[in-house]
Design goal:
212 residues, mainly beta, eight-stranded antiparallel beta barrel, 2 helices
């Protein structure tokens, strides 16, 4: 379980907070915050470069911790609920269809933050994702069905390693706008199958954060 592997690292980070919590000339102090906003998700089908998926809107949000090392560099771990997935539309035998797969993840990015100026910061780093649930929705003409996918199926990868790159724009000392692009480094499953195609999630995120 990926949570068991990263739990000691997260514990070490949070236990280290008091060491950096004092404001001073070389250290602006540790800050805790909340963030939330819009996710625009799609997928990269790894065995079909010509595959195209429509964008699927969703929500992302959670907690942020900034641990500065001076005024330029900071470590920024986050704990987020993130909706991902994809939408596919088309026409089959003259009947339009709409297929949507909704994925709910617990995302834990561990980011390096570089403050290019007082109002602008760049973030980059790895992200560990844990699949909480899957749900599919299909409509074609007057026909429709919904299905909750069993995430215990061995063909579905629940622990996924990915990466994050993005930027923060500070509106004032406490509020900021964030933009992120996240991409899985691993397929959703080991080898793919007709019912569970091998793909990687990619998500664009835009939202608002508050620091305390």
């Amino acid at each position: 379980m990926i949570l068991k592997k990263i739990a000691p690292l997260l514990l070490l980070i949070f236990l280290s907070v008091p060491l950096f919590a004092q404001d001073g000339q070389d250290n602006p102090g540790v800050r805790f915050g909340l963030k939330g906003g819009l996710s625009i998700a799609s997928i990269i089908k790894t065995n079909d470069p010509n595959f195209h998926s429509d964008l699927l809107p969703g929500f992302n949000g959670g907690a942020v911790l900034q641990i500065p090392f001076g005024h330029v560099i900071a470590i920024q771990p986050e704990l987020l609920f993130s909706q991902k997935g994809y939408r596919a539309t088309g026409n089959f035998l003259g009947t339009p269809y709409d297929y949507r797969r909704y994925l709910n993840f617990l995302d834990i990015p561990l980011l390096l933050r570089i403050n290019a100026s007082n109002n602008f910061g760049i973030v980059v780093g790895p992200q560990f994702s844990y699949l909480l649930s899957q749900h599919t929705n299909f409509k074609s003409g007057n026909n429709s069905y919904e299905q909750t996918v069993n995430t215990d199926n061995e063909d579905i990868r629940k622990n996924i390693l990915g990466g994050v790159v993005g930027a923060d724009i500070n509106l004032n000392r406490n509020a900021f706008i964030y933009v992120r692009y996240t991409l899985d480094f691993q397929n959703d499953n080991g080898n793919g199958s007709p019912s569970t195609p091998a793909y990687k999630n990619q998500v664009f995120q835009l939202g608002l954060g508050l620091l305390f």
